[in-house]
Amino acid sequence: MKVLWITNILFPEAEYLLTGTGELKSSGGWMTGLANVLTESEEIDLYVATVSNKVTFLRKLLGAGITYYIIPLGKGKTRINNEYEKYWITIKKEIQPDIIHIHGTEFSHGYAYMKACGRERVVISIQGMTSAYYYYYYGITKAEIFKNLTIRDLIKGTVIRGQKEFKKRSEYEIAMLKMTNYVIGRTSWDKARTWSINPEATYYFCNEVLRPEFYDGAIWNYDKCIKHSIFLSQAGYPIKGLHQVLKALPIVLNKYPDTVVRVAGGNIIKDNTIKDKLRMSGYGHYIKSLIKYNHLEKYVSFIGNLDAIEMRDEYLKANVFICPSSIENSPNSLGEAQILGVPCIASYVGGVMDMMKGNEENLYRFEEIEMLAEKICRVFANGNNQADVRLQASYRHDRKLNCETLMRIYHSIINATNK
Fold this sequence. Notes:
This protein is of the alpha/beta class.
């Protein structure tokens, strides 16, 4: 079976073949994990195609178990880009795939494939959904947004444009979903959302595989964690909800004055140089003002972009992991924390509640910072492990089971189109 994946990221192996270096320190590692499991099957010939600014012409690369096609980024993938269509026609003609699996609807190169090559044997996996996310983009009031506009925002419209970009991208997301016959999702939220756009599409359920580093048997231990420490996996823009944690933190500090918050990803409040100040976004300025106003400077740390092993170690050191987003489908960061047995708190949004079954007492409304603070303090006080949650996450993210489910989906689509 020839399977063509259309992805939003350049796999590390492909980047290494192009440049001699390749390390994944952002989202998308779960796809490489699933690809590794899938290529173990002798039945599958896997091809992975994406767009990248690292090439100026169509490149074909032979990896250890995957053949890669890299399309020039050109004018970009956040707007409809007709230049991609000629490349997709070439790639389809050369591979003649049995299944075309588009991972995510957030960018336009997947839409370009469907425009150029049609929807036959195309299945779309839902990741995030920009058509829903733009409603919840800010998570803060318009007054707070305009109060914290920076020079960068005035020049580039960064804060305001962020939501507008999501809304614009939702146009081709909706067009893709209306065109497709088949969708793969994993939560009651994405099922309802896709059904509302295309009620005729066949919806398949398939959970995700996490990064390989989270299957090595490591387990969180209360006695070894840093007591009263909070870990967040990212906070680069308002959807991720760091500001809500910072609003709740003074309440927590009244009870646990040694509490610290560690945030993975770039330092969005860095202003050591003129260049830093010019690059700071309005959201970064807002976060900095919250920290200053509440005197939280010594309690909050930005620890940089982390690879999978570094992320795993941060989860294990934390007393609690929080997913405080204003909207999510099924965040892999939450799955990673759960499969390690880390105590988790999450906002009751999107598809997150499906991942918190059996742990509903640690869900809270995104707006309710007092509830968030109370739940943090309760986790600190309990100090218990999360054996049941870990068992549930291990089943949800079982590599063999999810790969077998995906294979059944592929066969089902092929059989349906052969009738």
